[in-house]
Design brief:
Elements (H helix, E strand, L loop, with lengths): L1 H4 L7 E2 H27 L7 E2 H14 L7 H21 L6 E2 L1 H8 L8 H12 L7 E2 H6 L12 H14 L6 E2 L1 H8 L6 H13 L6 E2 L1 H6 L1 H5 L8 H4 L5
Antiparallel strand pairs: 1-6, 2-3, 4-5
Helix pairs in contact: 2-5, 2-10, 3-4, 4-5, 6-9
Keywords: Calcium, Chaperone, Endoplasmic reticulum, Glycoprotein, Metal-binding, Repeat, Signal
Protein name: Reticulocalbin-3
Family: Belongs to the CREC family.
Length: about 240
């Protein structure tokens, strides 16, 4: 893998080479994931997944046997998820024919990777966290999404820090709540590149002689850091056969 990440074959891995590799691995993971489930939904084998095919495969049993879903939580989940999936599907379906090509279905399953799906990602995040339904995320809703204070005791330090984060960095216009624009800035920051951040982290942690690049020895000496990294897709790349 080290040899394959080393694009210019100079025996060193740079931050840029690691960043490019991480992006390739992420993209491959996404397309493999879509390929894995494709046949489950493309029931008529026309190499497209119609909304009706997806709905039938995912919600068919519920739609045909609603009486079996009398549990309030189940009912609520299905009633909420079906229109949400339909809205997301229609946003991904760029030509509006209600049948997703491979690329459109990829955007449906992995909306965070596609520019035209960003509004959906923001909207779904808002809907998940906004418990009082006012169309905003206030500080308590933001905290409740990551911490449930069931004991009723004092909040841990990290929660207090998150409250400060909310006030200082999330609530940009200081009105006590996050609107859609502020939510987008939080979950899809324009100026943050996950792959670059991961690459910099790997170089920083493994670069013993601090020359800003990694030798194969430096990588192998810190192999456990790489096994847990997106660079090797959480170790998967170390065990699979490579035919690219």
């Amino acid at each position: 893998i080290v040899d394959r990440i080393d694009d210019n074959k100079d025996g060193y891995l740079t931050t840029e080479e690691l960043k490019n590799w991480i992006k390739r691995v992420q993209k491959r993971y996404i397309y493999e994931n879509v390929a894995k489930v494709w046949k489950d939904y493309d029931l008529n084998k026309d190499n497209k997944i119609a909304w009706e095919e997806y709905k039938q495969a995912t919600y068919g049993y519920y739609l045909e046997n609603p009486e079996e879903f009398e549990d309030a939580t189940d009912q609520h989940n299905f009633k909420k998820m079906l229109p949400r999936d339909e809205r997301r599907f229609k946003t991904a379906d760029l030509d509006g024919d209600l049948a997703a090509t491979r690329e459109e279905f990829t955007a449906f399953l992995h909306p965070e990777e596609f520019e035209h799906m960003k509004n959906i990602v923001v909207l779904e995040t808002l809907e998940d966290i906004d418990k009082n339904g006012d169309g905003f995320v206030d500080q308590d809703e933001y905290i409740a999404d990551m911490f449930a204070n069931e004991e009723g005791g004092p909040e841990p330090d990290w929660v207090i820090t998150e409250r400060e984060q909310f006030s200082d960095f999330r609530d940009l216009n200081k009105d006590g709540k996050m609107d859609k624009e502020e939510i987008q800035h939080w979950i899809l920051p324009q100026d943050y590149d996950h792959a670059l951040a991961e690459a910099r982290h790997l170089v920083y942690e493994s670069d013993v002689d601090k020359d800003q690049k990694l030798t194969k020895e430096e990588v192998l000496d810190n192999w456990n850091m790489f096994v847990g990294s997106q660079a090797t897709n959480y170790g998967e790349d170390l065990t699979r056969n490579h035919d690219e």
